[in-house]
Design a protein that fits this description.
This protein has 47 helices and 2 strands. It is an all-alpha fold and 938 residues long. The chain has a domain of 196 residues: Growth Hormone, Chain: A.
Amino acid sequence: MDLGNRNQMTLASLLKIYPGEEKKVSLAFLQAFGTGIFKILLQIIPVALFLQQYPASMLPYIYIGMSILSISLGFLYSYFEKRLSFFALFLVLLLTMMIPLFLLNLYAAISTSDKIIIFLLLVWAQLIEQLMDLEFWGLFNRLFTLQQAKRLFGTIGATYNLGSIAASFAVPLLTPFITVVNIFFSTSLLLLLFIVILWRINLSFPREMAGENEEVVQKSKETPQEATLSLISNIKTPYILQLFLTTFLMSALWYPIDFSFSVVIQEHYLTNEEMTNFLSRFFAIVTSVELLFRLFIFPFIIHYFGVITSASLLAVGITPIALMTLIFNLVETQSSSTIFFALILLNKSLDNSFRPSIFEPARLLMYQVLTPPIRAWVHSTTEITIKSAAALFASVAILIIEYFFSDNSLTVIIAATFVLAVTSLAVNFSIKNQYILSLVESLKMEYFPTTSKITWGKESLELIQEGLRSRNPGRMIYSLNILEAIDKDLFIEELPKALLHSSSLVKLQVLTKLSSYHLKELYPAALKLSKDTSENVKVRTAALLAVATLANGNHDKDLKPVVIELHSKTLKLRTAAIIGLLTYGEDSSLEMALKEFYELLYSPSYKKRKEAAFIMGEISLFENSDLMEILLDDPKKEVVRAAIVSIAKLPHPRYYPHLLKLLTDPHYKDTVLHGFLAIGSDLLDLLMEEFPSSTDQGKIQILYLISHMKVPNEVKSSLHVTLLAWAHTESDSVSDVLWETLTKLGYHLHKKDLVSIQQLDVDIVKESGRLTHLLRLCKRIPRDKGFSFLYQTLRRQLLGSEQRIYLILSCYYPPEMLKKVMLGAKSLNIQHQEYAMELLQTLLTQKHSTMLLSTISAIHQRQSKSVAPMTDSILMTFLLGIALDQKGYLSPTCRSAGLYEFFCRQGSCSEEILQKIEAQGDKLLIETCLWIRRKQQG
């Protein structure tokens, strides 16, 4: 036993699994191994089936279909990502992959000769191969912290490769006993396994799945787009454009290589089994090479050849092979054909092994020299936009080649492969910014048995320090931001030197960071800048705020320069002095600052009032002040907007009614919404605290605001629970808005929420509010699945009053469902005139003439068996409802048909009814009344 434990500890230590992680890592390994099997089956079997039914020239249509679906599903994923919890999102993702795949599998097994199904099967297989990457890595990014990810993802990736290798070797062994289509059925079972794993992970690690283990990262105030614009203006943007272009070319390169490979193997392997066995062995070898390179060779390639060369190795290898392939394709001999076939296989194997193991990691390394927000934006743009565009470009290009060079299309496509590879090399080696190029090449890769680590070595830091000495402001700021990300101690040492730079942009950047790091030794330098009248006003303002922030213990002395600026003729400096003293001042200086603030607040100049609004957003002293309400009522739009922005910085419930009123004003709506969205969950907490004590109107306003917020996924679940609880207790007007808010937040009612119906112990027909609430609740039940459950629940609650059950159902269900209820429910037996009237009057609200006539017919069929026939008074009321009150709902033809239907069923109509109907002046109704009179007269 001890020996076994020692061996287990040794294995865990080798794989870098720490105590307490065993269950989590075991599930990760199971998912990774299964994903490897899943993806290799997607790469082998659908391709083999397709090439048996279609010529390889049809493959571009597959690529186009896949890329269009990929873009569409990308938009849908982004939409649902904001509205569903992480578990629900990935469950929907797996079900979206599994259900169509299972149905296509089933149909393909029944009819293997159906070409359309095989075509759709390959399109869907190509698509879910990409979606599986999203699910696989997305799940583990949520499950593991950043430190765990760096330690374990290499091992998890290797497990994934082992699964692919195992599946590749297993398929040829299974084909003699099981058909290819039946083997592919296992993909649906694997997706079912992934759903079970997801459920188990969600059950065992709810905090991780809710995102509670994510590290708190200080977010930049600027958006990635703004950061990108800053990057574009400050550093050599051709580097980013080159990254995009390289990715585009290398992604496009995959398609002619895959197309050529498919054309050649289609000529050599004639049956499904032969092609499947060949592809299995081929991918087994390729995946083994990929695993070998990923674990043992890539770190050394990076070390000896550098990042740029490593990123170019794939194109370097493909270029001569494509050229040789082109030559041997033009030479028509038996030996040249064999060599041509071998070169095509070599090209494909090189692409499949080098791309994931060398090119992709090297490309990600090239992102490391970008600042974090830029890096995230570049990566997402590449994965979502660039690669999809490359797929469309390559597919359309192949189709054009097939159209214009039908006889020699393969030769032209191989030539295009050569051109793409050479162009990619040219772009990769054309980086002209030597500073960034040197930084990229200085990155080091530390090698471990199961993973690797990127480090900034001594050479990198020397290059960054060289950039800090540059006279170029863009390079200087870029170097400063990079240094802050990788070495904060050295960054703090460099700040005083950076403050001496001649550029105002650099000084602003440094002064902004001084307050964050509170470097008191820079007080003299900041003071000197604040007094320098030749300096930019923005720099002087930032320097003055830094002086107030860095003031030492002797406040009277250190804040004196700030007090002097209270009387500055420059409004921005005056504002900065007020903010500095209100934040750090004491006694007399604080009193002077308040005096100056009030002077701005009540100034006849709207520019000064606007500055007062700005000051209030910076000082917590004004967080709950009635002064803000003065600014919100200001006649100048600029002042009101400044006040809204300040409230967004320091939100307080007392201002919400004012802001909600401003939401209805087109001049302020965008400002209000933008400000509240920036607040996020802090505002949400305040709103939820304020809700119970608010008036009904206040509650409605709060809910309206919540419905416009981007609620974080991790708090949606608790928010739904709270809103649901309130929906069952609030007044009808508030409850209606609550349900609308839940709908906008992406909430979907479940049958469990109908428990509240069973708790009603009052007559819901007499209590109109309860009836409204019940109908509101019913409206969110799935129409196809919720009917029988709702019927049984209502029947128990209403003590078998089935007529009233159908009356309630008719208020919700669409006409087709209501018709089914009226004609198909055997238990319906309307015997009481008041029930009939209630139901008919309810039907009038449906505004569907065909439905109304069908219901009339159904009622009369049952009425003929009833003891109490429908009287003239009821008939008159109903007909007047059609002819008078609901005239706009039904056409004259339909009203005439309704009248005729009643006459035929009842056998008579009173003269009083006919005269009232004729009084409407409808020609068709008048003619119908005359016909009825003639019939009644014999």
